[in-house]
């Protein structure tokens, strides 16, 4: 009996983006990243991963604002 190797599914880009946004927001709050570097990295990921095409730039920005809004309060 042979077990076929199956590639595991790729993680959901939206979930990865949200997790990255939360992590970068925490790094910003801790003083490890400045705001521009934190946001630029997120924007770059959203563009290269196809997330901007998938959900739109407004939604990408809303997710980033939500993550950073939590740490700025």
Alpha-carbon Rg, integer:
15 Å
Strand content: under 5%
Largest sheet: none
Given helix and strand content, the structural type is: mainly alpha
Number of distinct beta strands: 0
Mean pLDDT: 88
| Contiguous runs where pLDDT drops below 50 for at least 5 residues | none
Give the fraction of residues assigned to helices: over 70%
Task: Count up the helices.
Answer: 4
Structural description of this entry:
With 73 residues, the protein is mainly α. The chain has four helices and no strands. It has helices spanning 13-29, 35-48, 51-55, 57-72. Helix 1 (13-29) packs antiparallel against helix 2 and helix 1 (13-29) packs parallel to helix 4 (57-72). The longest helix has 17 residues, at 13-29. It is globular, with a radius of gyration of 15 Å. 21% of the residues are buried.
